[in-house]
């Protein structure tokens, strides 16, 4: 399960800042996650286990590379639920079970353009010193799938303390989705995350249940980061070998 090399993005579709990021990760049996993946993707496993991540953050300065950002539309909370996969050619990447966002135009555009599973949600992100509170609740689902997370961020990890798992979970540079029934890949570039220690003070969520997953077992592996600037590449259809 080595960390994949970061792909250079020469022609960007979007520029984004991902700020106030919290990474929560749990291990699941691969045979629990595999039925939820589209044909062509397999879980990226380690001893029969696969990681599932919940990542709340602030999406900021979202814009095409040739246009300025718009104050309201370009800044909003987002939370994604994802897992780690291998494509038909063996390349590592991410598959999203869901992406919650607080801007309906963004949700509609992402669903129409890339068929990403965005959900329109009532969301908030509040910072009080070293503590960040994330909240979300979906508008259009009967039970309002959502979450509340309270996390305290600490000092930055020394590079010597970061191991292969830390790098693997934070350096994925390709996402997969289905478009018109075909597998599509989009490459993403960003500098290395400045990773900080973090402590979960409170967590209540049913995003995993809404995705068809059992409740995670045990405490999550936690990282936090002030953020990175990203370049999102153009989509390309994936050959099915």
From TrEMBL:
Against PANTHER family, the record matches this protein to: DUF2071 DOMAIN-CONTAINING PROTEIN (PTHR39186:SF1), DUF2071 FAMILY PROTEIN (PTHR39186)
Designated name of the protein: DUF2071 domain-containing protein
Q: What organism does the UniProt record list as the source?
A: Actinoplanes couchii
């Amino acid at each position: 399960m080595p960390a994949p090399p970061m792909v250079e993005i020469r022609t960007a579709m979007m520029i984004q800042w991902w700020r106030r990021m919290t990474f929560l990760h749990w291990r699941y049996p691969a045979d629990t996650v595999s039925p939820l993946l589209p044909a062509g993707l397999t879980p990226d496993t380690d001893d029969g286990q696969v990681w599932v991540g919940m990542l709340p953050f602030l999406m900021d300065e979202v814009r095409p590379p040739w246009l300025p950002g718009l104050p309201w539309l370009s800044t909003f909370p987002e939370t994604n639920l994802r897992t780690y996969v291998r494509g038909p050619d063996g390349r590592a990447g991410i598959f999203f079970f869901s992406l919650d966002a607080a801007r309906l135009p963004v949700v509609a555009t992402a669903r129409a353009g890339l068929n990403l599973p965005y959900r329109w949600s009532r969301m908030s992100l509040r910072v009080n010193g070293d503590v960040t509170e994330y909240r979300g609740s979906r508008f259009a689902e009967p039970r309002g799938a959502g979450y509340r997370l309270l996390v305290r961020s600490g000092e930055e990890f020394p590079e010597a303390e970061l191991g292969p798992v830390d790098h693997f979970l934070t350096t994925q540079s390709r996402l997969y989705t289905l478009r018109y029934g075909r597998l599509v890949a989009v490459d993403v570039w960003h500098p290395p995350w400045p990773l900080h220690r973090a402590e979960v003070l409170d967590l209540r969520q049913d995003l995993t249940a809404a995705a068809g997953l059992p409740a995670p077992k045990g405490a999550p592996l936690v990282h936090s980061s002030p953020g990175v600037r990203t370049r999102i590449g153009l989509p390309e259809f994936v050959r099915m070998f």
